[in-house]
Specification:
Layout lengths: L2 E2 L1 E3 L2 E3 L3 E6 L2 E10 L3 H19 L3 H17 L1 H12 L3 H22 L5 E4 L5 E9 L2 E5 L7 H12 L3 E5 L5 H13 L7 E3 L4 H10 L5 E5 L2 H13 L3 E5 L4 E5 L5 H13 L9 E7 H17 L18 H17 L2 E4 L3 E2 L7 E2 L2 E6 L4 H4 L6 E7 L2 H9 L6 E5 L3 H10 L4 E4 L19 E2 L9 H4 E9 L1
Parallel strand pairs: 1-5, 8-9, 8-11, 9-10, 11-12, 13-14, 13-20, 14-19, 18-19, 20-21
Antiparallel strand pairs: 2-3, 4-5, 6-7, 7-23, 12-22, 15-18, 16-17
Helix pairs in contact: 1-7, 2-4, 3-4, 3-6, 4-5, 9-10
Bound molecules: adenosine-5'-diphosphate.
Length: about 475
């Protein structure tokens, strides 16, 4: 098998390789991927630093053309890349291809943004002086990504970084290097000058840490766990660098008595269990008012029983395997914790066997949970959700907001009054009415508040806030 290497200063390099394993079939090696060390990371940072001044001055048409080409190639190869994604991460083929299309759309969006860079011209408060406000690149951007969206998250960080004229050192999650390698290869062949985009695949504690410790990384954008996010924050404060964090969620989905039951059940099923519950926007707390509670639980359990869990590459599969053995252990541990805490395991929660050896788990639904239980407070990151019964809307809103996190918050209701109140009062960066808490557009801001996120928003034109620094220039006329 050929080794997919790291890209440092325009050269493919690296011999030591690790196997990328398919979670739907652990006998299958998806590919061999080089493992970078701390020196590789430092070389990549030096290359990005050296390439930064010229790339910052590059023409917008050059940047536009490269991002457009990348978008076109990703789209043209959506079946192949979607299959690679599903093979390395375990989400279904439909989800894998959908995510790949989204990556193409993101590159297309930011190709367009290169042509829309603008500033402001204002009169000074002093006579005969003009003021210009412009945006400039930040410099070297460090990008650290998690395993759960192997192509979309790299895309929504790399595309704006390049669009606004930054150079990049990119470290993908160790579990899923395949899609990251593919988009770096595409961008490299699309004509990026050497050193502008560097790929260092490897361990967080080695490669990621070397990025955190470098004074030459001017900004770090991170998506991953709360624990690592705190390290990124501490190191970034130390170096006085810009940083942006997207971390956990414990997203609520409220179902009111007046909800359309079918809409509520479909949204809950999707939010809680699709993509194997491995989305930071997944809802793991289903907060249901008493008048609809029993009907909701019965209808959701019935739907869950009909869902097909299996090999991600089988076209009839609706929920793929858990990503690896340690995540599966975490999910099963939490199911045990929920039982011991006194919640009722109403459906699922068993490990499943399929034709190929993989990390298959039947989605689990707890009822009779309360919001103080660990299963209601800690992020599980698997297909595990709890139903918390409440008296009325006011209690539902209070429970929904009673969490350390604040990424996405959903409600199922036919009441305009409650929908409007919820949109205003949900303590989350994103609010969904009669929709799953997961599933967002690529052209509008993404991000949360409280313990979920730190820094300015990702995606859409709001991304400019992170990937640029503002300059205010005064000129005497
Ligand atoms: P999860 O694996 O649950 O998504 P992590 O925070 O462990 O969450 O991983 C997210 C990303 O952060 C991965 O690319 C990982 O390699 C990286 N990472 C882990 N530890 C460190 C660290 N000490 N410094 C920098 N990056 C790290």
């Amino acid at each position: 098998m050929t080794i997919h290497q790291n890209l440092i200063d325009g050269e493919w390099t690296g011999a030591e390789a690790i196997e990328n394993i398919n979670p739907s079939n652990t006998d299958e090696v998806v590919g061999l991927y080089a493992r970078a060390n701390a020196d590789d990371a430092r070389n990549a940072i030096a290359a990005a630093k050296a390439a930064a001044p010229a790339w910052a001055r590059s023409g917008i048409l050059e940047r536009h053309a490269i991002l457009r080409k990348a978008s076109d190639e990703i789209l043209a190869r959506k079946e192949e890349l979607g299959r690679l994604l599903s093979s390395e991460e375990g989400k279904t083929l439909g989800e894998g291809i959908g995510e790949t299309v989204r990556a193409a759309q993101i590159f297309d969006f930011f190709a367009g943004e290169t042509l829309r860079l603008a500033g402001q011209v204002l009169p000074s408060v002093r006579p005969n002086i003009g003021v210009e406000i412009t945006r400039e690149p930040v410099g070297v951007v460090g990008i650290i990504t998690p395993w759960n969206f192997p192509i979309a998250i790299p895309a929504w960080k790399i595309a704006p970084a390049l669009c606004y004229g930054n150079t990049v050192v990119f470290k993908p999650a160790e579990l899923v290097p395949g899609c990251s390698w593919a988009i770096v290869d595409i961008l490299h062949r699309a004509g990026l000058p050497k050193g502008v985009l560097n790929l260092v695949m490897g361990k967080g504690s080695v490669v990621g840490q070397a990025m955190l410790d470098s004074p030459d990384v001017n900004a770090i954008t991170f998506t991953g766990s709360v624990a690592t996010g705190k390290r990124v924050a501490a190191a970034s404060v130390e170096h006085n660098r810009k940083y942006q964090l997207e971390m956990g969620g414990k997203n609520p989905f409220v179902v009111l008595d007046d909800a359309d039951l079918a809409v509520a059940v479909d949204a809950a099923l999707n939010s809680a269990f699709f993509s194997t519950g491995q989305r930071c926007t997944a809802s793991s707390r289903l907060i249901v008012t008493q008048g609809i509670h029993d009907r909701f639980v019965a209808a959701l359990s019935e739907k869950m029983a009909a869902v097909k869990v299996g090999n991600a590459l089988d076209s009839t599969t609706q929920i793929g395997p858990v990503v690896d053995d340690s995540q599966l252990k975490q999910d099963l541990d939490y199911i045990e914790i929920g039982r011991k805490e006194g919640a009722n395991l109403a459906f699922g929660g068993e490990r499943l066997n399929r034709e190929t050896p993989g990390f298959y788990l039947q989605p689990a639904l707890f009822t009779e949970a309360n919001n103080q239980m660990r299963i209601s407070r800690e992020e599980i990151f698997g297909p595990v959700a709890s139903v918390i019964q409440v008296k009325d809307y006011d209690e539902a809103l209070a429970v929904a907001n009673d969490t350390a996190f604040g990424l996405s918050s959903g409600i199922a209701t036919t009441s305009l009054k409650h929908a409007t109140h919820f949109k205003r009062n949900a303590e989350a960066g994103m609010v969904m009415v009669n929709l799953p808490t997961a599933g967002v557009d690529f052209h509008v801001p993404f991000g949360g508040r409280k313990g979920s996120s730190y820094g300015s928003r990702e995606q859409g034109s709001y991304a400019a806030e992170f990937y640029t620094t503002v300059k205010t220039a005064y000129t005497l006329a």
